């Protein structure tokens, strides 16, 4: 069995519905959710202005409908990229990047 290769095919922008530099509510166009029906896996990419590329408490608290999907976080201070899975309640699990 061949390993599945994941590639980014589209990167539609999302909005911060909270309109705040400190808090966010991720909002995206409804049609992006239907990409899953076409076989795409949805993921969230965002950056942190700090050295941390771990999910913040806000990321965990506001995961909502994105729970279980990959969260790619880039630290703008270190350029370190990491992927996480945030599920309800538990600690985020780091996903391998290849
Ligand atoms: Zn974050």
Task: Provide an overview of this structure.
By secondary structure, the protein is mainly beta. The chain has a single domain, classed as Cytidine Deaminase, domain 2. The chain contains two helices and six strands, in the order ββαβαβββ. The strands form two sheets. Strands 3-4-5-6 form a four-stranded mixed beta sheet, with no helix packed on it. Strands 1-2 form a two-stranded antiparallel ribbon. The mean pLDDT is 87.
Task: Give the structure's gist in a few sentences.
By secondary structure, the protein is mainly beta.
What is the secondary structure topology, with strand pairs?
Layout: E1 15-16, E2 26-27, H1 30-33, E3 44-48, H2 57-61, E4 70-75, E5 81-85, E6 93-95
Parallel strand pairs: 3-4
Antiparallel strand pairs: 1-2, 4-5, 5-6
The chain binds zinc ion.
Q: Main attributes?
A:
98 residues, mainly beta, four-stranded mixed β-sheet, two-stranded antiparallel sheet, 2 helices, 6 strands, 9% helix, binds zinc ion
The small-molecule ligands in this entry are: zinc ion
Question: Secondary-structure element order, as H and E?
Answer: EEHEHEEE
Number of extended strands: 6
**Can you tell me the CATH class?**
Alpha Beta
Strand content: 15-25%
Number of domains: 1
Which structural class matches the secondary elements? mainly beta
Q: Give me the CATH fold name.
A: Cytidine Deaminase, domain 2
Considering DSSP H and I runs of 4 or more, what fraction of the residues is helical? under 10%
CATH superfamily grouping: Cytidine Deaminase, domain 2
Query: Would you identify the regions where 5 or more consecutive residues have pLDDT less than 50?
Result: none
- Any guess at the CATH architecture? 3-Layer(aba) Sandwich
Number of helices: 2
């Amino acid at each position: 069995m061949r390993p599945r290769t994941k590639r980014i095919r589209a990167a539609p922008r999302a909005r911060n519905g909270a309109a705040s530099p400190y808090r966010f509510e991720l909002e995206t166009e409804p049609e992006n959710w239907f990409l899953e029906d076409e076989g795409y896996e949805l993921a969230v990419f965002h950056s942190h202005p700090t050295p941390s590329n771990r999910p913040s408490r806000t990321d965990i608290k506001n995961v909502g409908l994105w729970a279980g999907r990959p969260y790619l976080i880039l630290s703008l201070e270190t350029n370190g990229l990491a992927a996480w899975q945030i599920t309800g309640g538990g600690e985020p699990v780091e996903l391998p990047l290849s």
